[in-house]
Structures are given as structure tokens and as C-alpha cells.
Amino acid sequence: MSEETADRQATRPAPRRFDPVGGAVDSPDPADHVRLRRGAAAAFTASGVERVRERSRRMLAELVDEMLQDGPPADLCEAVLGPFPMAVICELMGVPAADRHGMHAWSRQILASSPGAEAGEQARREMGAYFCDLIGLREGGTGEDVASLLGAAVGREEVTLDEAAGLAVLLQIDGEAVTDICGRMFHVLLTRPGLADLLRAEPEIRPRAVGELLRPLPHRDPVGLSRIAGEDALPLRMEAELLVDALLDGVPGLRLAVPAEDVRFRKGTRMCGPVALPVTW
What we know:
By secondary structure, this protein is mainly α. Helices cover about 55% and strands about 0% of the residues.
């Protein structure tokens, strides 16, 4: 548990918890935690996130256009909220396009498995081996993606290759878990049409509204280690803001295609988002 959370109100850990690969970044603060995070930190600064913002916007526009071309009804999770965070985190991590389908499959297996399940552990080991290879190939490189930054840190002997791969696994999984957070956010918007209409009419308030929408949404079920963000989590927030802009402006008639009470949420796994969000327009 971080020292910052020790004396503060925070969601307590559930009896079952997610044990990180090699203790990469969930180790106690501050020294090892800071050392491990330092190698990848540049990718998650404001300038690092801006590096992928325009590319992310284009990828999202393509997904929304495809959904519109296919016509209603559609599952918003399958059409947009699933593939978009996967594409963004892979872009940040430096995972080549040809490998992204397999990375997505590993991430979903890990997130969908109950803690300790062999299928999830096997997927985690395979992802760790993949990142060992990817980071090793970029050792001494000068790229701005996470794999390249970690490869440079390994080359400087600031972290070991196993530590770098363990951190990369956690970042990749957390990046794809944004699907579930955004699913819950859009469930709120779609079940409160007045709120969606307000954000359409007053786009200048969207950044603040996104922050308020994300604030109460749990990241995992069951909850793992207690964490309190000391500052905005920029890639999580960037994706949410882009999604709100693209879907509220690009699909003005967007609404649930089923009664709100018929939307089912995942239970008994690390994911806590909706199974599907059937929509029409």
C-alpha cells in the first residue's frame, strides 16, 4: 500500500487481489516503486500523451464511422469502447500493429479470469515473455513509446529486463481496462439523457464533466491495492474526453436500444463494466 493512502479514506482491498507480475510496480513505496516507474514515466506526461492524441482521434473517428455505416442497432462496447482503448494503449506501449490482436486477447483473458485462475496466469506469463523480447530488442533505443523507454532504462542498468517486462504487463492491462471504465461512463450518460444533452449544448464544460463522471467509477472488481491519484491520470482522461466528443457530436441521436434495467454488468472477474451497451440512433 502506498504511504500516501495509509491515513486517508480509500476503498479497501478485497479478500482476493491481483498479484502483479514479478512485483513490478505494486511493491511498497517509495524507493523501488519510483525507480521502476521512472523508466516509463515520460510516455505518460502531458507531452507524451499529446504525442498520440491526434493519432488516437483518427483511430476513433474510423471506429465511429464503421459503426454508423453498419447501421443501428450496435453494441457500443464491441464497436467502439473495446477496440479504441486497446489501440491507444498499444500505441503508447509501442506494440506493433501486427501484434495487437494477440495482445488484446491476452489482456482480456487476464481481466476476465478470476484471481489465481490458470488461464489468466498463463496469459500473463505469455504477455510477460512477449514484453521481454520487445523491450530487449529496443535496449539502447531512443523511441518515445514505453517499450523503447524501458529498453533504454534496461540498457542504463536502472531496471532489470524482468522488472521492465513486469511493469509493461501491468501498464498494458490497465490500459485495456479503460474499456470497462468508459463503458460505465457511457452507461451513466445513456441513462441520463438530460446530462448528455447538456454536454452536447455546452461542449466547454466537457473536460470538467468527464473528470466528475470518472471520479466515482471503480476500476476493478474486486478492488486490488488502495491507490489515490496524486494528479490526473492523463491517458485514462484523454481517451474518455475523445470518446465523449466523438460520440456526442458524431452520433447526436445516440441512445440505449434496450431498457436501462436490461443492461448487464460483469461479475466475479476483475472487470466491472457492462457486458454490452446496445445502442441505436
